[in-house]
Amino acid sequence: MISKILVVDDDPMLSELVVYNLESEGFEVLTAADGQEGMRKFHSERPDLVVLDVTMPKLNGYEVCQRIREMSDTPVIMLTAQGREDDIIRGLDSGADDYVTKPFQVKEFVARIRATLRRSEMEPVDMESITYQDSHLTIDLDARRVTVDGDVVKLTPTEYKLLAYLVKNKTRVLEFRQILENVWGFEYIDDIDYLRVYIWHLRRKIEPNPKNPVYLINELNTGYRFEPQA
């Protein structure tokens, strides 16, 4: 089946570039020039993936992403000139699955779209009924439910997949490239800074003190491991 992609960007020249390259790769592409039009087309067209600019009139990309997340797990890629870590974390807080900073390489951008679609289409991995629980954190992989001090924590699909992969391999040190390939795909194996941002964001959601983590442990220059607590 041909995947349908909605591109929401108020820059007509950039939209034209993105449309041309995606259509050349066999995708069906829809466009919207602002956040409100993007939401209308999201409701009417039900795309398989959304590419969102951040700075737009009427509704910005963060607001659009939040509204999409309230009703759907449709993959969202933020396309932004804002490359600071705080901006990236805000995108993740909004529910984005990925981010690409402007200017970008077209081939890399298309590869990330394919990888994101591939992740969204994969059947859930059999997690062997693994459940983790202590006085602070509960992770029920069967139910896809994470609670901290009894309160449900909302994770994006990508955050959940990252946490599930670490929990399934608890106490094992997983190398950076190993995590990137298994959670995001081979297109991401060199994006160690990308993984670092996601780990920090996940720590903010589950750790008692994100600056002194006890669950998501960094093995210097090697990788990460999930450490159970007594």
The succession of helices and strands, N to C, reads EHEHEHEHEHEEEEHEHHEE
Counted up, domains total 2
Per the CATH scheme, the topology name of the largest domain is: Rossmann fold
Compute the gyration radius: what is it?
A: 18 Å
Counted beta strands: 12
SS-based class? alpha/beta
The oligomeric state of the chains shown is single chain
Cα distance spanning the termini: 48 Å
Query: Which architecture of the largest domain does the CATH hierarchy give at level 2?
Result: 3-Layer(aba) Sandwich
Low-confidence stretches: none
- At the first level of CATH, the class of the largest domain is Alpha Beta
Percent of residues in helices comes to 40-55%
- Average residue pLDDT: 88
Give a description of the structure.
- With 230 residues, this protein is an alpha/beta fold.
- The chain has two domains: 4-121, 3-Layer(aba) Sandwich (Rossmann fold), CATH 3.40.50.2300; 131-226, Orthogonal Bundle (Arc Repressor Mutant, subunit A), CATH 1.10.10.
- It is 41% helix and 20% strand.
- It contains eight helices and twelve strands.
- The protein has helices at 12-24, 35-45, 61-69, 85-94, 106-121, 157-168, 176-183, 192-206, and strands at 4-8, 28-32, 49-53, 76-80, 98-101, 131-133, 137-140, 145-148, 151-152, 174-175, 216-219, 223-226.
- The strands form three sheets. Strands 2-1-3-4-5 form a five-stranded parallel β-sheet, sandwiched between helices.
- Helix 2 packs parallel to helix 3 (61-69).
- The longest helix is centred in the middle third of the chain and has 16 residues, at 106-121.
- The mean pLDDT is 88.
